[in-house]
Amino acid sequence: GSTYSSKVFRVTFLTLAVSVAVPLLGVTVLLDCPIDPQPISLKEPPLLVGVLEPNTKLRKAERLWENQLVGPESIVNIGDVLFTGTADGKIIKIEDGEIETIARIGHGPCGECREDERTCGRPLGMRVGPNNTLFVADAYYGLFEVDPDTGETKLLVSTKTLIEGQKLSFVNDLTVTRDGRKIYFTDSSSKWQRQDYLFLVMEGTDDGRQFLFSLLEYDTVTKEVKVLMVGLRFPNGVQLSPAEDFVLVQETTMARIRRRLRCSNLLSITFRYYVSGLMKGGADMFVENMPGLPDNIRLSSSGGYWVAMAAVRPNPGFSLLDFLAEKTWIKRMIFKLLSQETVTKFVPKYSLVVELSESGSYKRSFHDPNGVTVAYVSEAHEHNGHLYLGSFRSPFIGRLDLQHV
């Protein structure tokens, strides 16, 4: 009796399994995949030891103006007045604790939906020019100059303008020379816009066009735009060195690198592009194989750089991105069945900020495992002994007292 029952069970189980698996397989074969992923060869992530040893120092951060703003990606200050751009397209001024919307590059109505971004705009990188004007990189509209007092907005480089025959698709970050003459900025993709940044990360491939804009230079006097570097994948944060002899460009996801850049295929790369001196026009590696996916980069008071990580590659531990790197069929399956919002929920909310020395070595790191206090850190901006923490999703600005960490 028991033998017969077990046979019946096995047959029933197998029948059910096949009846579920076959249609599912058929559906996944027939469904379109929005991305065309290519295998990525990654180095093993660096061990989180020494100055990278996990800690909970980011949990000491205060949450400022909680639920009064959403997704303050980049932060600048003029004196003690702070400015930031938010997910609903606003450019915000914070003075004496009071929040005021001074400008909006796009047009409403605007909410927090991904679909709203294209019309509302998404201010990302922000800098202060020599005349205390704000320079803003909007992901959808382009490069702008904003008067912080009147809110008057001036378009410098439009995403509709053809540059070497192509339009900008995902304007991301910028850095400005002290004299305000040159602005260096990144265009993260010629295929994907900001709302589809996860596709950009997961695809990790050439999008089929001859050139992919990466680092560009805008001359505020001649109004000319030059393409300085092409072929990077997800060029993101950008920062001039203290001496302004080179620009650092963060490449969030590994991609094929043009040979002339003398770089191999690595995941988390910061390129140094020389803009003056003996190596003018040359590029080399600054930091490779970082412990996370670098987002924005800003100067530290020690002469080095603060780098915020959009996600972490734990070692020891499990890194989803590293696991999927060469498994293109799994990536296809995932994005055939799941939305970007759903996939995002599987990315650990581990927050990490590192300080690099002027030569690119790690000086210290601040962690918040599981993103308890601050999550999705996009930028670390140092001002007056504090680290102001931007985030592309959180509803507040974090502030960390550097004297007490």
Structure description:
GO terms for molecular function: arylesterase activity. Keywords: Glycoprotein, Membrane, Transmembrane, Transmembrane helix. The chain has 405 residues and is α+β, with helices and mostly antiparallel strands. Helices cover 15% and strands 35% of the residues. The strands form 6 sheets. A 4-stranded antiparallel beta sheet has the order 1-24-23-22, with no helix packed on it. Strands 2-3-4-5 form a 4-stranded antiparallel beta sheet, with no helix packed on it. A hairpin with an 8-residue loop joins strand 16 and strand 17. The radius of gyration is 23 Å and the shape is globular. The protein starts with a helix and ends with a strand.
Can you give me a brief rundown of this structure?
This is Adipocyte plasma membrane-associated protein. The protein is α+β, with helices and mostly antiparallel strands and 405 residues long.
- Kindly state the number of beta strands: 24
- Distance from N terminus to C terminus (CA atoms, Å) equals 69 Å
Q: Give the helix level as a range of percent.
A: 10-25%
So, the CATH homologous superfamily of the largest domain?
TolB, C-terminal domain
Query: What is the total number of structural domains?
Result: 2
Which strands sit side by side, in order, in the main sheet?
A: 1-24-23-22
- Give the radius of gyration: 23 Å
Share of residues in strands: 35-45%
What structural class do helix, strand and pairing data support? alpha+beta
The CATH topology annotation of the largest domain reads as Neuraminidase
SSE topology string: HEEEEEHEEEEEEHEEEEEEEEHHHEEEEE
Provide the residue-averaged pLDDT.
82
Overall 3D geometry? Answer: globular
Q: What CATH architecture of the largest domain do you see?
A: 6 Propeller
Q: Which residue ranges are poorly predicted, with pLDDT under 50 across at least 5 consecutive positions?
A: 206-211, 254-267
Q: Helical segment tally?
A: 6
Biggest β-sheet description: 4 strands, antiparallel
Pfam families: SSL_N, Str_synth
Keywords: Glycoprotein, Membrane, Transmembrane, Transmembrane helix
Main location: membrane
Protein name: Adipocyte plasma membrane-associated protein
